[in-house]
Amino acid sequence: xxxQVSSPGTESMxxxxxxxxxxxxxxxGHLTLNRPAGLNAITLDMVRxxxxxxxxxxxxxxxxxxxxxxxxxxxxCAGGDIxxxxxxxxxxxxxxxxxxxEEYALDLTLHHYRKPVLALxxxxxxxxxxxxxxxxxxRVVTEKSRLAMPEVGIGYFPDVGGSYFLPRIPGExxxxxxxxxxxxxxxxxxxxxxxxxxxxxxxxxxxxxxxxQLEWRDTPLKDLQGLLATVAVQQLPDAPLATLRxxxxxxxxxxxxxxxxxxxxxVTVADSHEWAITTADLLESRxxxxxxVTLEMLRxxxxxxxxxxxxxxxxxxxxxxxxxxxxxxxxxLLIDKDKTPRWxxxxxxxxxxxxxxxxxxxxxxxxx
Length: 368
Hints:
Strands 1-2-3-5-7-9 form a six-stranded mixed β-sheet, with helices on both faces. A three-stranded parallel β-sheet has the order 4-6-8. The model is unreliable at 3-15 (pLDDT under 50). It has two domains: 17-148 and 197-231, 2-enoyl-CoA Hydratase, Chain A, domain 1 (Alpha-Beta Complex), CATH 3.90.226; 242-367, Alpha-Beta Complex (2-enoyl-CoA Hydratase, Chain A, domain 1). The chain is globular, with a radius of gyration of 20 Å. With 368 residues, it is an alpha/beta fold. The protein has helices at 44-58, 82-90, 95-111, 128-133, 162-165, 173-180, 186-192, 204-213, 220-231, 240-251, 257-266, 273-283, 288-301, 306-323, 326-335, 353-358, and strands at residues 20-25, 28-33, 65-70, 75-77, 117-121, 124-126, 138-141, 146-148, 197-198. The longest helix is centred in the C-terminal third of the chain and has 18 residues, at 306-323.
């Protein structure tokens, strides 16, 4: 999920068939998220359409690879339609429960897909969008790409496999990205291993033409890699996170969120004081509970396999609408729009470690 929402007035998770475009060209199945006015925010029906196409193409010998993209110029996918999940919970419906189960199943399908998946991450790739692309074999970013797991900003935690892919970023970079929710651009995405290739946005149409003319010679993955090597690069200079890495590795290895924020304000590491103060201010605007649970979730996820990470996220989901800060975050930022969420607890100093730990109670082998 993410802090982005669909277009104003769109409160239903129902989708019309053209909200996912699907076609096969030159043995490649092309899937396009087609809600550009809503930044391609994914709905339950879109999840189901994507799953159906992927299942069918997995069995179709005519399809050798899959390409994922978003329509429009602003986003690949800015996440899920949070307002609809809020409405579901408030009305006593079950949509907010069903959505996560099926969304995570789709993400797992992409992680385990038997044919190569190429994700074109032009524009925003937030929350649920990251869940779709991080299981892809080939992830392409552009100068317009903005990647993030911004859930803590609305009182939630980075799901859709975030407990798996974030803590596997080198050092403490993934912990930083998860508990802060900051966006990264192309150079940092490549540096962190959240993307594999960089290509200018204006060259995506030329890439499409080359895909249509691709001669299949080796394995489909090698053929696609060979094509990308002729038009794209795998590294960019001047990744900001590379410069900040010593400071991030120091601060975000500290034992808990109050310690992290305190040290950000009091200790200078590698000429990063200005960044540290700005980061401390940002963290103090986030949900203390969401950050505390996120920190624990990511540190646990580092030692769990992919399936268990998704199981852990579902375990948290089943409690979060009742016990977490999401409903208040959505109220403050999307419903009343007063932008003054009343987090519970209101400050990191009031965050109780036993309360954070209680969200993980019962998550054991018998549940997975």
